[in-house]
Amino acid sequence: MTDQHVGQRIRALRKARSLTVQQLAGRASCSTSLLQKVENGSRPLTPGLLAQLAAAFHVGPEQITGQPYMGDAEPEDQAAIPELRRVLLTFDSPDDLGQPARPLPVLAAEMDHVTQMRQDGQYVQMGALLPGLLTELTHVALTARDEEQQRRAYWWLARGYRATNSLAHKLGYHDMSLTAVERVHWAADRSGDPLMQVTAAYLRAGAMVRMGAFGSARRLLEALSGEVDRIASEEALTEPQLAVQGAVLLKLAIVEARDGRPEQAAQRLAEARAAAGMLRSDTTHYEMSFGPTNVRIHEVAAMIDMGDTEQALARLREWGAEQDRTEWELPAGIAAERASHHHIDVAAARLTEGDRRGAFADLAVARGISPVHTRFHPTVRHTAEALVRLDRRQDDTIAGFARWAGV
Hints:
By secondary structure, the chain is an all-alpha fold. Among the domains are: about 75-190, no CATH class; about 195-330, Alpha Horseshoe (Serine Threonine Protein Phosphatase 5, Tetratricopeptide repeat). Helix content is about 70%, strand content about 0%. The protein starts with 5 loop residues before the first helix and ends with a helix.
């Protein structure tokens, strides 16, 4: 076990500010009993409550979660971080290349591969490729004589910085993640692609949500939804536009859920469901996982964020009946990062409802789908911590998972 679990860090921050449990619960818009359970380590800390507590304490979420998790990390997990920091710093004046940059089509194909790694949660392999690839793309973008080639280079560069943002965020380097989002904006603006610019702003809104700036995130996302409509003008939205619009609506649903506005969250989910109904299947345009499956994933996540874990699990059973199964199972082809995240959320919900065996089973599924994503996810650590503390039989399987997760 680590010297201090997340509940103890919350208690220490609360006492340092001379707050009672009741006072902190009021500021974080949660019940006193929930906060007490989180502090004593018997209830996992949800992303929504994490954001509320960070705002109440006026600290970054990492001061509560303890990220980045350095002590238990394999060296290779963090190997790309120093070089990526260098690339982020020298974004408009990159290091010299020892040889000419490869042709843009070759670099684009490699970035496509990196994008797939991101969606599959293969951060270690992705991190090894990103510094050199970003540097080459920057040289192509800065030296291109053809305007169209320059715009395309910046377009691919925006995707590379998005992958950098994802890696930094998932490994807990939140300051680096915010810098990467700024670089996505920089490249997207130069790409001339309005949907890439919307995507960049969408990532910024996601950072706002993690920081608990719900009002700011809501205003930005609503503006982005209007911008996609403006891009489409009087024509019907294309499939890529629907994917981006749908992702914005789903993010809005999460904002409303975490801000304690269930009716507004339900409305946004309904709008997203309608948009998904216009697609033939789930899509990944602009790396936005969107479609009927992702709407359902977000519907469950929103319920969990609002504390309605019982209803969330009931909805899984309801959808499972449609598949002739006990509970809903994700269809094949869903991005590994998204699928593992769903199981991590459900594990926390099961633990809240007292189903420790089910919670551990979902954590194991998440690990099987995307090991690195699972290992470094704060909710996994919080859930594993709680499972160990509640396990009177001292099951070595649970303890072993907790050790693997760095608890």
